[in-house]
Design goal:
The termini are far apart. The chain is 24% helix and 43% strand. It is an alpha+beta fold. The chain is globular. The N terminus is likely disordered. The strands form two sheets. Strands 8-1-2-11-10-9 form a six-stranded mixed β-sheet. It has a five-stranded mixed β-sheet with strand order 3-6-7-5-4.
């Protein structure tokens, strides 16, 4: 019986350890978010984005990245934050997203890129239970990182866009 308890606690430790590692932090509004550095392909300043008709409001359009068409999503709008005019600090982070059998490079527009952090398992806590069935609405949250008396929201970028949304974006990139 005792070994079963040890195994269970070891499984929990392994799950927490999987979230540890290097994260790129960025700002949206007043909040700081972070995504795994391994998902980041490139960071660039804002540039001309070609609008694509009849797409959701958070899909800003597409860019040409060295001959490859990349869909661009404004994370502010995806997260239902108020739209803001782009500034000199506004960036597009090109990420490799994989979900529902689709692998796609996507640009995400953020207000400002902050820094790269190396987070230990002890720095990361589980996402709080927000009640009212919010679990499915917050499935894209990996956890919360505590850094210098601040909280950074860790995103699972593969879950930010649903499989159906990715299929739609993938059709633009063809």
């Amino acid at each position: 019986m005792r070994s079963a308890v040890i195994e269970t606690s070891e499984i929990g430790a392994v799950a927490t350890d999987q979230r540890a590692g290097k994260y790129l932090t960025f700002i949206l509004g007043r909040e700081e978010f972070a995504i795994r550095v391994l998902k980041v392909r490139e960071i660039m300043g804002i540039q001309d984005i070609t609008a694509v008709p009849q797409t959701p409001g958070y899909v800003k359009g597409v860019i040409n990245l060295r001959g490859k068409v990349i869909p661009v999503v404004d994370l502010r709008l995806k997260f239902c934050l108020p739209e803001m005019e782009y500034t000199a600090r506004t960036c597009i982070i090109v990420v490799q997203v994989q979900t529902a059998g689709i692998s796609l490079q996507t640009g995400i527009v953020v207000d400002e890129v902050s820094e790269v952090l190396n987070l230990a398992a002890a720095d990361i806590e589980d996402t709080p239970d927000f009640g009212d069935g919010a679990g499915s609405a917050t499935s894209y949250l990996l956890g919360m990182a505590k850094v210098k008396d601040k909280v950074k929201i860790l995103l699972d970028i593969d879950q930010v866009l649903s499989g159906q949304e990715l299929r739609g974006l993938d059709s633009f990139a063809q």
